[in-house]
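Z., the sequence and structure:
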Amino acid sequence: MDSLSFGSLNTTSGSPRLSGTASKLDTAALVEAAYEAKRLGAVRLETRITDNDARLTAFDEMKTLLQDLQAAVEPLRNPPGVLGIKDNMFENKAAFFSSSSSTNPNEILGVNADNSAAAGSFEITVNKLATANKLSTLSASAADQTLADAWNGGAAFSGTIDIGVEGGDTATISIDGSMDIYDVADAFNAQTGTSGVRASVLKVADDDFRMVLTAEETGKTISLADSSGISGGFQTSELQAASLAEFEIDGVPVTRTSNQIDDLAGGMTINLFKAEPGTTVNVSIEPELGEVKEQIGAFVEAYNNLRTFFDNQSTISPTGEVAEEAYLYGDRTMRDIMQGLSGIAGSDVAGLSETALSTLRGAGITINEGNLLEVDDS
């Protein structure tokens, strides 16, 4: 009969202790087994934490995919009411041009149409562009020559000039003979916001510097009231007269003070670039659905990404086991969202007229055998 030696049994502080060497016992294995038994609860908790972290990550991914789908759908929404037209992608308009001559119509004019513009066509002939009034002063022989020497025969002077454009405010500019031509230009420009007139210095030659006054608005004449004290007065000559834009719309003569016309028809701004009498530009305002097509593609992609996520989270292997990364398998929230989206994708929108677009199929979107959306480009 085999025997086991357990060493010596001693008492320490009233407690029994085994000392010596025990034979035929794997004490390391016993200790490891005891340790693992003690850790079993912790291991289960760690596994649960890991699983919950994976579920949270999956929920975050689903949230992001849902937000992507919402962002893709929003531009395709038809905002209610008259004010909603500006945000309605299906009301987008674009202008198309053709010319009666060899001139590129885009060289003659441009048209910007917003969603409120009415579809249709019209003809424009640009006979004359609006121009800004320009005046030139007397010259100075050098950039730093004083105005007293340049304009007043060397005699000192001081006074004011009242300047503005017709129908606008007037600014008072103080000048004196010690100023040079750049100083006086700076003084005029300091009041441009009030007067509507800007100044620049034109170097005609090395000994010829002149100040040019230009109206900020086309079609309006510069007005001057001289109290400068210059013996011969604040003399100017007209370089360019103010003129109105003259054009025809379907044969009807029209004039405007500006080459940018935004009050001719609702939702439309016309910019005149070049006068070419005798050339007629045909303008056609038509629906522009290219952006709609792109947005439908973005919606289909976002929907399919979400649907693929649902499918991956619902995967069962051929042996009947849940896929390793299907962290949301059986989750009620995911299932409800998935069923809701599937129902919306395949149903009609209630309350719309018979002629309105009420199904995805009507927009050329179908559901394939894999429950993914496809776009029929035809």
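The chain has three domains: 52-77+290-375, 93-130+244-287, 134-240. The mean pLDDT is 85.

Let me know what you think.
H.
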